[in-house]
Design brief:
The complex is a heterodimer of chains A (295) and B (620). Chain A is an alpha+beta fold. Helix content of chain A is 38%, strand content 11%. In chain A, a hairpin with a 2-residue loop joins strand 3 and strand 4. In chain B, strands 1, 2, 6, 7, 8, 9 and 16 form a seven-stranded mixed beta sheet that branches. Classes of the chains: A alpha+beta (295), B alpha/beta (620). The structure holds flavin-adenine dinucleotide, iron/sulfur cluster and FE2/S2 (inorganic) cluster.
Amino acid sequence: MSTQVPQQTDETDAETEPDAEEEPSKGDLRREKKAERAAEREREAAEADPLAGEDTRELKVFRFDPEVEGKQEPRFDEFHVPFEKGMTVLDALIYARDTYDSSLTFRHSCRQAVCGSDAMFVNGQQRLACKTQLSDLSDPVRIEPLPHADVRKDLVVDMQHFYDQMDAVEPYFDADELPEDELEEQRQSRANRETVKMSTRCIWCGACMSSCNIAAGDNQYLGPAALNKAYRFAMDEREGESRKRERLEIIEQEHGVWRCQTQFSCTEVCPKDIPLTEHIQELKREAVKNNLKFW
Amino acid sequence: MASNTTYEHDVIVVGAGGAGLRAAIAAQEAGADVAIVSKLHPVRSHTGAAEGGINAAIRDGDSWEDHAYDTMKGSDYLGDAPAIEALCRESPKETIQLEHWGMAFSREEDGTVSQRPFGGLSFPRTTYAGAETGHQLLHTMYEQVVKRGIEVYDEWHVMNLAVTDEDDPTDRSCHGVVGYEIRSGEIAGFRARDGVILATGGMGQVFDHTTNAVANTGDGVAMAYRAGVPMEDMEFIQFHPTTLPSTGVLISEGVRGEGGILYNGEGERFMFEHGYANNDGELASRDVVARAELTEVNEGRGIEDEYVHLDMRHLGEDRILDRLENILHLAEDFEGVDGLEEPMPVKPGQHYAMGGIETNEYGQTCVDGLYAVGECACASVHGANRLGGNALPELIVFGKLAGHHAAGEEFEEPEIETGKRGDYEDADFEAPVTLGERAAGADAESTADAAADGGEAVTDPDAVLEIAVDREVAQVEELLEGDGVNHAEIRSAVQETMTANVNVFREEEGLKEALVDLREARDRYDDVGVSDPSRTFNTDLLHTLETRNILDIAEALTMGALARNEFRGAHWRKENQIRDDENWLKHTLISWNDGDPDLWYRPVILEGENKRYEPKVRSY
Ligand SMILES: Cc1cc2nc3c(=O)[nH]c(=O)nc-3n(C[C@H](O)[C@H](O)[C@H](O)COP(=O)(O)OP(=O)(O)OC[C@H]3O[C@@H](n4cnc5c(N)ncnc54)[C@H](O)[C@@H]3O)c2cc1C
Ligand code: SF4
Ligand code: FES
């Protein structure tokens, strides 16, 4: 299986685990009862087939919850949803959750491909659930959390590592000089805006990182999204030469650009069509130029 | 679920959209130790979905005074001049500030930022970054938050405010918030030494066809309401004229700004041919266009009895790719339409809440130490109808003012009064059913107001916070205990009645029906239960909490709509087809008085710094 389920890994995790020493508390008993009831409902739903005769799609959805007995062992649940033209994977998941099992858990918000919260592994590829039409997928639709990330519950993964890598490239604009007049622009040429434009479109969904073999093998590799973020600033003419050099130093470190083996998997999955591999190559070129200048 | 953790900061900002991030930066600049608590990671906030642009008078030939005039006219004279003038005066500086922070605006040949025309504006003053202005703004601002090392508690859902217990809300003060960590299920207090700034965004989920995110459930508005802060002008909901029929995804006004044309099913350019807006046509203000489209559909000239067409093909591929590229993707991904080859289907959808938490021009509410900014707030800059491109400046201008104010900077006396004091007027309002929570019976206790349930007055800040935390712990326990009605059923019942009865066109009978339906939904909420027993990422529980907020907001919105028996801006009333300035140049305010909603009014302030804005007939 491509997904990593945490085995009580880090400390913060342990802190939130129920205390095993104590007598079973009222809460524990209640939770047990609830789990039973949930299982019962599931059985009932499976037996009755309210959708008989409708045009339906089958979802096979990854389930895991470290808190709930019966879900601690990862498994796949099947849900049948009525199909309508235009229906996305996210619509289908919402239908399954609201109709069959309200504990089915996934992140989502904008449902228009801008918040980046619903990247998942759908039929073997990283995709935004909201941007993926069911009609483009073969049945059954297999939905898993992003590979190479710790699963918190069902389709929700821990994004912390991704955020940390983003942070590592100093992901903020640092202008060389600002106009004294606070009403005057520092200006950017149209051509320069075009150069950085695609790189500014990243929505932090994490699909690229999850698809990257190198990132999977090297936990410290900055990864495509963070390198793209570095590109966004390094190539912005307004930052000035010395800041650019500092930025190139960050991405040239051991776990930086040189790890990229141009496999293009990040570029393939990016829902924003950012030419990630190209940007990384461009950074390599810049780094070489930078070195030539100095050595 | 025992927890004793308390986090403490000078200023706590709830929400990390454009408004929250700007407020946090400002508070930090003013020297405060500030933290952001947000149920979504900042970059997931809905500000990222904004497309069209930011209005700012930054060019020769334009002036902030003209911007203020357009805004007052657009508001149908229901805006308060001190707030509108602050918005328009500060917007240029704040917009250029974003440019200084590196925002990737679209550019002119000389490298200055581009501007384009937008509906209801007398000058092309909408500054933009392609058709993804909000995304660029949100990320730029978050970058600055990272740069400054401002603490962010992300995926923490704020459940309630810690507000003192005095009888009169204007005597109360806010000392913090209660948060629920989504990842662990931990409930903790966040103590704010100087102030809490609510920036929780829109409430689109009250309706079922909306451009808003699923997370836009109006939490901040509902929390403030239950803590005794009035909600202002809730009846004014903007329905955007161009949303995709199947999802509600927005097609930016930028399309019409660039010259996109609306056609009905008979191929007529109806904005002109049927006389809806003989001067401005497609660029008339949003309420006018939304009504025109629905009228076409209702009179049988729609397409598939549902929508009309928005055509941009004639603009040419180059211009579309340069300025509206994102629109092509949206139409393709969410409606399967190629905007270069075909016209796009569009219909009106809920888009923006003009009303919200009553604030003055600095974002202060009537509760000491409690601020609100962004879409959840109503400083009264949009009045009865918001102009496109006026919400993003609101985030940055009022975000900054509130941040500085909360951090203790000195300001002049506010000109806008808040809370039930001064020249307010009680309303004569009759509802068809009992409103609010009272009728729900004895159990209502569990979901009571903030700390404002009339008990013994506790004033020690730590104790106030502790009480608030205990109450939420108890509430969560109870919700997890009960195995009752699923929140999704209640939520969709609310959305259905709101869409059927409190939509673009409104009439008395339907509004009353909506109140009856909402009463029923509220009663069912008494039996709500969470079936997921987990403490890890329990979205079942979260959605249940949000549904309570949706209920309270829907009720207030409908009350306001029923009370205001006139036709103004986005609020259309069948019974009364005129704007009635004699009786209605006033705001509706609804406050939660120990479980009962109470409706009253306050006059609009048309007196600006140097002039008075005289109401005129609004024609486009
Ligand atoms: C599709 C679309 C396009 C738009 N285009 C434009 C445009 O072109 N120009 C313009 O001026 N305006 C536009 N608007 C309006 C404008 O974008 C919004 O009004 C504005 O972005 C709202 O920003 P905000 O900071 O108030 O809220 P949001 O960006 O919605 O942020 C809300 C924040 O609050 C947090 N939050 C909510 N509840 C809780 C809770 N209980 N606990 C903790 N945190 C919570 C969320 O996590 C989020 O971080 C558009 C709106 C939409 C929907
Ligand atoms: S680069 Fe693309 S795939 Fe990677 S996080 Fe950004 S949007 Fe997602
Ligand atoms: S829900 Fe926001 S990207 Fe899919």
